[in-house]
Amino acid sequence: MEGVEAESRDEAMRSKTAFRCAKAAFLISSFKSFQNRNLRASVDEQAKEKERLRKVVGDLKIELAMERRRNKRIKLCGLMEFVLQLLLVISLSSFFLFIAFKSI
């Protein structure tokens, strides 16, 4: 049950990340073609729009980096959980083997 929830959560994160990447790519491409679209706009308006686009792209890059870090942390927690479960199984099996051989 947890595996299905984890997969659906991972799928949701991937789709969110893909959407953010597409949005960032769209903003970057619009930033590159900015001067072609705004030939009639004043220099001040162009500078403001350019700065706004830079901020948006920067914010999206930061958000993407945070999302990647969050995903790495989730994977690390999953690995630690697996290692702890493995240690528990080994400890319990050693304990029961010790009891079994001691009683013989």
Automatic annotation (TrEMBL):
Coiled coil stretches, renumbered: 36-63
- Keywords from the named record: Coiled coil, Membrane, Transmembrane, Transmembrane helix
Membrane-spanning segments: 76-101
**Top-level taxon in the UniProt lineage:** Eukaryota
Protein name (record): Uncharacterized protein LOC111445952
Q: Which organism is it from?
A: Cucurbita moschata
